[in-house]
Amino acid sequence: MKRTKETIFRQHPDWQQRQGISGLKEFDGEDLQYDARNKFNKEQQKQWIQEQIEEKKRKQEQEKAEEMAYAQQTLEINRFRGMLQDNFAARKTDIGVATKQTNLQFAKEKKDKDERDKQERLQYEKNERDLLLERGRKQPYNG
Prior knowledge:
By secondary structure, the protein is mainly α. It has a domain of 92 residues. The strands form two sheets. It has a two-stranded antiparallel ribbon. The chain has a two-stranded antiparallel ribbon with strand order 2-3. It starts with a strand and ends in a 7-residue tail after the last helix.
C-alpha cells in the first residue's frame, strides 16, 4: 500500500465504500491497488519486451533470408553471364575459323583462276607465235 498526494488523477470513492464496521477502509490519498497495478505493469512490460525481442529476431531472420536470396540470385546471374560469355567466345572462335577457311578457299580459287588465266594467255601467245611463224615462212605455190 502506498500513499500518494496526487489525488487529482484518481476519483475519491463514495463515502459508503470508504467507511466500514471497524472504521475507515481507505484513507484520502491512499492507493490500495498500487501493488496490483504495479505487478500488472511489470508483466505488461515483460510481455512487450518479449514481443520486441521476437519481432527483432524475425526481422533479422528475414533480412538474413533476403541476403541469402540476393547472394543466390547474384551467383546465378554470374553463372549465367559466364555461360553466355563462354558461348559468345566459342561462337566468335567458330566464326573466325569459318572466315579463315572461306578466305583460304577464296585465295585458292583466285590462285587457280590466275594460274588458268596465265596458262590460257601463254597458250594464246604460243598459238599466235606459231601462227606468225607459219605466216612468215615461204609457202610453196600449188597453182
